[in-house]
Design brief:
Layout: E1 21-26, H1 36-43, H2 46-49, E2 52-57, H3 65-70, E3 76-79, H4 81-89, E4 94-98, E5 106-111, E6 126-129, H5 136-144, E7 154-157, H6 163-166, E8 172-176, H7 180-185, E9 201-205, H8 206-209, E10 217-221, H9 228-250, H10 252-261, H11 268-282, H12 294-306, H13 328-339
Parallel strand pairs: 1-2, 1-3, 6-7
Antiparallel strand pairs: 3-10, 4-10, 5-8, 5-9
Length: 361
């Protein structure tokens, strides 16, 4: 386990006795159930109970969460591990202090009739991907299957939706289990007038292919982790965050409603699907929610160093240096949450069966 070290450039402000300490969390994307645990921790007063007044900063197309954090415009940020490690390599002083998503939610989806069910089947096909650092699980999977991603497939820049696959402009599309995949099941089959079902599609799940990478994590300011006040703040923040995610595990519909009320542009059935699928990426958490698994971390780093995209680039040029992650604070937070009666493992978690409606309404 890595341990915290270093010194802070400036001390972390301490709130007066009885006052709440202002804290800003930069989210990775627009409000949706991907961030329900943080939204619930605010709404249910979990952060306030820890003495924190947490403001959630909505993400967007042009917002890089780890950069916002490194620039001191937020106290914590939610970001995928490979992207954050790339920012660290370029000088961002950030540390993974809570690996909330223990598993990857990235799929490559094709029509069942295409005959595509494995990475090797992508040879000679039109393969969509989003780029922007989201493509490396796909590229690692193809490489592992013996394909040259730059020569053996036709790569297509994909929008953040599934229209290109639905229109059969591409043979396989990148999708998150909790978002874009649901968009397929919310679309109407013009031949039948009914919604498509899972039987209409085949899924390549990169977890099963051994090329998955760690995704949503809570990142902290590395230099400030040398300050005892920021250390204590981090434990408090993580304790309440654990409570928020445990609440959403046990109250999926309530958290769906909180996300919709927050202003999500996605509908209620879509958000309930997303909440259910996100819970699958977190629970069960054998070592406790948020603990970095060393093997999963190492696989992410190895893929980041060795897998090349179509331009020959890798995510990382070398292994991460310094305090890339630490379990010190999440373990303290787990102990506090357990003492408060929170189930931090979710061993009995059972996903629900969610019925999607047209357009996710």
């Amino acid at each position: 386990m890595l341990t915290a070290c270093g010194t802070a450039d400036t001390p972390t402000a301490t709130a007066p006795t009885g006052a709440l300490l202002p804290v800003k969390l930069q989210l990775q994307w627009f409000y949706q159930a991907q961030f329900a645990g943080y939204i619930a921790a605010v709404d249910q007063g979990f952060y306030r109970a820890q003495g924190l007044d947490v403001t959630l900063l909505e993400g967007g197309v042009d917002i890089v969460p780890q950069t916002v954090l490194a620039q001191g415009k937020a106290d914590y940020a939610v970001a995928w591990v490979p992207k954050a490690l790339a920012s660290r390599e370029q000088g961002a002083g950030i540390t993974d202090v809570g690996q909330i998503f223990a598993r990857s939610g990235t799929y490559q989806v094709a029509w069942k009739t295409s005959g595509i069910s494995t990475a090797a089947d992508l040879k000679g096909k039109k393969v969509g991907n989003w780029g922007f650092g989201n493509e490396f699980e796909l590229f690692a999977g193809m490489t592992k299957a013996g394909l040259n991603p730059g020569k053996d497939v036709t790569l297509v820049q994909q929008q953040f939706d599934m229209q290109a696959l639905l229109k059969k402009e591409i043979d396989a599309a990148q999708a998150m289990s909790y978002n874009e995949y649901a968009q397929l099941l919310e679309a109407k089959n013009p031949a039948t007038g009914k919604l498509y079902t899972a039987d209409d599609f085949s899924i390549i799940d990169w977890k099963a292919q051994g090329s998955s990478m760690l995704q949503d994590a809570v990142w902290a300011n590395t230099a400030k982790l040398g300050d005892p006040a920021y250390q204590q703040q981090t434990v408090k923040f993580l304790t309440a965050t654990i409570q928020g995610w445990a609440f959403c595990r046990d109250n999926a519909e309530k958290c769906r409603d909180l996300v919709v009320a927050k202003g999500s542009k996605l509908g209620k059935s879509h958000q309930l699907w997303q909440m259910n699928e996100v819970n699958k990426l977190i629970w069960p958490a054998a070592g406790g929610i948020g603990v970095v698994d060393g093997a999963a971390w190492q696989q992410t780093v190895e893929i980041s160093q060795t897998t090349r995209n179509q331009t020959g680039d890798t995510v990382l040029k070398k292994a991460p240096e310094g305090l890339a992650y630490t379990n010190d604070y999440i373990n303290q937070a787990i102990d506090r949450a357990k003492a408060a009666g929170v189930d931090v493992n979710g061993a009995g978690f059972q996903p629900a069966a969610v019925t999607l409606t047209e357009g996710g309404a």
